[in-house]
Amino acid sequence: MDRSENRMRQTLKRLDSIFPDLTPAPLKQFIIQSWSGELLQPWQFAHTTFDSIRISPAAILIDSRVYGNATHLHESIHLTQSFVGAANELEAYGLNIRSDPRFLILNFPYFADMVTEFFLPEFPKILDRFFARPIREDLNIPKEVQWFLMPFDDESLKKLKEQIKKMEPILQEEERLNHQFPIEAAYLGEQTRDMSLLLDIAAAKLLPLPDLKEMESEREEAFSILEQQFNKLDNTRLGYKIDRKREALMILTYKMNIRDPRLRLSLYFHFLKNRYVGPDGEVNLKVVNEEDLKKFVQEKRLQVKRMMKSKNFTEIERQGAHKMLKDATSQ
Question: Mean of the pLDDT values across residues 289-294?
């Protein structure tokens, strides 16, 4: 217990040193949970519930001996986030990739498009080589841990580490947006199912975009396709889980016959800049349907209230949930 307490104290100090301007993480409870349940699913290493962290003994072992306490750090940033949603995971993984480039590979769905478009065009090939290495299915060790521990191309990891340093302004902008507009960020994450959306918007704002001269005649149609997909409300209203970015890029491929993936991504990032970045260079997280946003917030509030009724929920967690609901009402 003493080691766990010290590990958590050091993690909070580490978080504060990385983000000195961030509101201190309000950790009130650290639960080592040896069973799976509604508050810590079998596939989860750890889970943050408002101002409490639940973590499995196996996760502590892996985190302290393999991951350099990255899971502790990941959950700690969740304590500072005022709402729920995919953007919170994006921010937390953005914290992890700073400590080890292998986390960029393991969590590639959050970063791959931005990295490929602006920093490392060969990133997809690195991913292929990393995940092509065989793992032992008969071992009771998560496959991600096995891949992490296996030796890998040092030159590729060095390149990734160098590029991650260059991404720092984009990571910081994504974090700023998530804390400044937590409800809009959460809503857009669910409405579009584009898990990298906030990071991609930050990149579209801060980085010079590729020239689209060779796509001048197709640009209007491509933007119309992207607009149509990003305006759809099926995910929030009907409970679908359709990644609108992937859907739009697929239509660009097969309907418009744009076979070059770099051209498709270039169109996507130009679309994001047109949609979310104003003439003054500031980001406006555009919500198409305000009524749908209100319903989304109401549903999240109901989910939290249902969670609070769980017999496994502690009184400290209930108080944290009450505070989040109160803060969400005032935003």
Answer: 97
